[in-house]
Design brief:
With 257 residues, the chain is an alpha+beta fold. The chain has three helices and 20 strands. It folds into two domains: 107 residues; 111 residues, Lipocalin, CATH 2.40.128. Helix content is 17%, strand content 46%. The protein starts with a helix and ends with a strand.
Amino acid sequence: MKNIFAILLLLVVLTSCKSTAGKDSNTASSGISTEEDLQYYFKATGNEPFWGIKIGRDQIVFTSLIPGKESITFSHTEPIKAMDANVKMYKLSNEKTTATVSIQQLECQDSMSGAIFPYSVKAEIKNNSELDTQKLSGCGKYYTDYRLHDIWVLEELNGYKVFATDFQKEMPRIEINSAENRFMGYGGCNSITGQIFYEKDLLRFSKVVSTLMACPQGNKEGEFLKALQSSTTYSLENNQLILSNPSSRLIVFKKVD
């Protein structure tokens, strides 16, 4: 009897471990950006009927279970942007199909999985030989550039090279988690945390919180944090992360392993 109980207990433990491992694996893979996310920076899906769209720098791909509209590729076009809200409209066409896709920054819940997405998407699509337009709705998200996912140490601030003497102990640094759109680090005097907001050609550092240690006179932490929160665009080159806004280049970070 004891042997039977021991065997049953072992089976329960093994089953539990297998289930947990599978869950962790799925969770990790769902939040990590890939090479494809550099090509297709926005993705959306909808249900009843099932459909999806991928927006990339070179092309926009629509897929569905709708007869005659299983896979349609459009050349990329720049969206029309609303003046008073974060809404973008893509007007798409090729030799066979015409479509309009609207993306609004509005919380959206998938009707089947219950997952919450930050953008609501509506699409109207029709074959040019048809009279009726198919109207669709769904949810989507932007995929943050996975190359940002690293530790970055400050090299240049507002056009000038910085030195350790400009700060209290060590150079400011940030560690970006691109899968969760957040960052943490050291501002030159205090520890800092915050969130990042990412869309195509847009990167903002927001909701920055720091510890409240008094900084000595001459410490440039305040200047660094102001520049960080003023940046709107970025570029990556030669292991450097360069943050800018329409007025100037604000910050240059160096990637560290």
